[in-house]
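Researcher: Please predict.
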Amino acid sequence: MIEPLVLLPEMMCDARIFEPQMNCLSRQRAVMVAPVSLGERIEEIASDLLDQLPHRFALGGLGLGGVVALELIRRAPDRVSRLCLMATDAQADTPLLAAAREEHLVGAKAGRLEDVMRRIIGSDTLAPGPKRIPILNALIEMALDLGPAVFERQIRALQRRPDQQGELRRIKVPTLVLCGAHDTLTPQRKQAFMADLIPGAELMVVADAGHLPTLEAPRIVNDALKDWLGVPTRAAYV
């Protein structure tokens, strides 16, 4: 039986962030993108999603989506058949970072959501090249479509998120940790540390990508996801 694939997007993103993956992977399996915008706590978002998701599924998360994915596998390890974490940070907010997010909230509430998003995920977080500006513009379009109310909920969820590093060693399913070499938000060293803590995890660094590898290097990401989806769940972890 081919398990469905559930993808969880980065903050202020929707299904468009995974469009290349949906177009490719949906030829062989059911693929769905679930929202990570319906609560002000990671635990609340995960609880609501578990009521909506299939009984058993492969799970991939990007950014905030990866944080929610870690909470999902903590709560329901028997329902997640495999895990992919992309540009994910398992650490809780530091006081300094939490305070900086308050400034972002003030700006968004004042009608400057676009400017705030460009400060959070700017051109320096993506790989250089001709695709950088179109991808940033696509990100801004998604953010503006979702609006400031979603932004506030997601910022609150990030500020209040638990530190998940202690849970990483308990993950027992095939896990891919995927990151872009040019990502300055969740740099490679953080991804490598996280992969080291997860038993049997594979770390893949995409040379020509930054924080949004699903759009920056879609063919490489698609091939990596196909390989990950092909790993036998029982044979690899007994």
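Model: The mean pLDDT is 95.
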